[in-house]
Each structure stands twice: as C-alpha cells, then as structure tokens.
Amino acid sequence: CPHHAEDGRSEFVPQTEGGREDDRSFSFRYDVKDQAFVGNSRACADLASRIDGDSVPLLTSRELACQDSYEQAVRRQFQAMSWINHLAGDCDEKVRAARKEALLAQDARVQAERSSKENAAM
C-alpha cells in the first residue's frame, strides 16, 4: 500500500508478493521540482527509514518520538552522499581530461618522430 508524505510529494511503495516477509524490495519517488532532495528533511527521512539491514524495520519517520532529530540526521547523510557524488563526478571529469591530454601529447610525439625520420631520410 502506498505511503504519501503529508505534503503529497514523496511516495514509498512496498513491493511485496503475497505477503512474503522476506521480500525487502521497494520503490521511492520524489516529485518536488523546486527543492533538491537533499534539502528536504522529510523526504530524506521517508527514504532512509525504508533502508533496512538485518534489523527490525524502522517505523515510518513520522511515528518516531525523535522525528525532527532523525529527519535532520538523515538529511545530513544524504547531503554527504550528494557531496561524494559531486567529488566523484569532478574527479572523473579531471581524469578524462588528463587522459585526453596524454593521448594528444602521445599523438604529437609520434607525429614529431615520424617527421624527424622523414627529414633524416631526405
């Protein structure tokens, strides 16, 4: 059964078949166009509360006694993940540019060697 946030802009839909308790799949949709996900504490908490490991599944974030603290903490975690993604993208861009420069330099060196050999043969 779907779970809609009070603002109606994020949704959690458990994906269970025939009530199987071992099925831990779910989908999450974020439809806020005017705010980044990592800036929306409630949406971050809605998603984070669905991520479980071997422990007992967490209540929805709105059912927690420490809702505000939980929402702020998970928002900070998602912001950290977002920053890591930014750093990874920046690093990837720099590595690709360096590889391209290295290939261009290698091509220029090979071309210079060919020209030098051609000039020496004349």
From TrEMBL:
**Biased composition, class Basic and acidic residues, residue ranges:** 1-10
Q: Where is this region: Disordered?
A: 1-23
Q: In terms of domain of life, where is this protein from? A: Eukaryota
The protein's name is Uncharacterized protein LOC104774847
Task: Name the species this protein comes from.
Answer: Camelina sativa (False flax)
Gene field = LOC104774847
